[in-house]
Amino acid sequence: MGYQIGDVLKGTVTGIQPYGAFVQLDKEHQGLIHISECRSAFIQHVRDELALGEEVEVLVLNIDEYSQKISLSRRGLSERERLARLDYRRIGKQGPHYFWTNRHVKLGFSTIKQAMPTAIQESLQRLRG
């Protein structure tokens, strides 16, 4: 199989089920677009979004290592385009941003229980300003 996660492919819708749509990628490979990956908004029925025989552009989300089943997304393409249009020069100028990981803190192998009081104090200080 020559496909990789992140590939953008074209295929044909060959089957529609309540949970998603099957897309024929080539003569040997077929993938599934889950109903949640059809678009970013809620859809009641897959058939309202896709039609049999329709040509679609999809993003490869995952390839199961054992069964070789391919998970596809149309929603991922629109999100990828949206992220490509971001003006990265403006990011971070709206104020401080806090991230879950702080790579400057070296905790080593200390347990969460040992680090928790310090983390709580730091969080309270940030909340109090």
From TrEMBL:
GO MF, one annotated term: structural constituent of ribosome
Family matches, as InterPro entries: NA-bd_OB-fold, Ribos_protein_bS1-like, S1_domain
Protein's name according to its UniProt entry: S1 motif domain-containing protein
Organism name: Weissella halotolerans DSM 20190
Pfam families: S1 (PF00575)
TM regions (residue ranges): none
Entry superkingdom: Bacteria
BP GO terms, sorted: translation
Domain S1 motif: 6-75
